[in-house]
Design brief:
single chain; alpha+beta; Sufe protein. Chain: A; 5 helices
Length: about 150
């Protein structure tokens, strides 16, 4: 019984952590001149985020995101944007789904997996887009779950 109570307390702590990141996400907003950008949408939950990254010398100088979504999506975006600052593009490309779920600290069911991983998808697509192409409003890519 003691182990069960400990797990419940730990889960509750992480759930509160996720809710706090949802209420006050890190790196929320826009960049003046991002070098990479991607808009992602999850039709199952309604998560809708735009991620912007400023890359200088193959390193992430700054990153921001904006949009709306469930607590898991926003918390994941907050944690991932904190994590990738200062990393090389190769390091960012190496971030896995498993690692991303680990940042959240709680088990994620199959139904909510897309919510938690949408920000990682946005980061990976953004940094893998044609780097020579400048970003403008018409260049935004939208993933409508197709």
């Amino acid at each position: 019984m003691g182990a069960h109570n400990m797990e419940s307390e730990t889960d509750a702590m992480y759930r509160e952590f996720i809710l706090e990141l949802y209420r006050e996400p890190h790196n929320f907003g826009t960049l003046a001149q991002p070098t990479h950008e991607y808009h992602a949408f999850n039709p199952l939950c309604g998560d809708d985020i735009t991620l912007q990254i400023d890359v200088k010398g193959q390193k992430v100088k700054d990153v921001r995101f904006e949009g709306s979504g469930c607590a898991l999506c926003i918390a994941s975006a907050s944690l991932l944007t904190d994590h990738i600052k200062g990393k090389t593009l190769a390091e960012v490309r190496g971030i896995t789904s498993k690692e991303t779920i680990g940042f959240l600290g709680i088990p994620i069911g199959a139904v909510r997996m897309k919510c938690a991983l949408l920000p990682l998808e946005a980061i990976h697509v953004a940094i893998n887009k044609d780097k020579a192409k400048s970003i403008s409003k018409s260049d935004k890519v939208t993933n409508r779950g197709e």
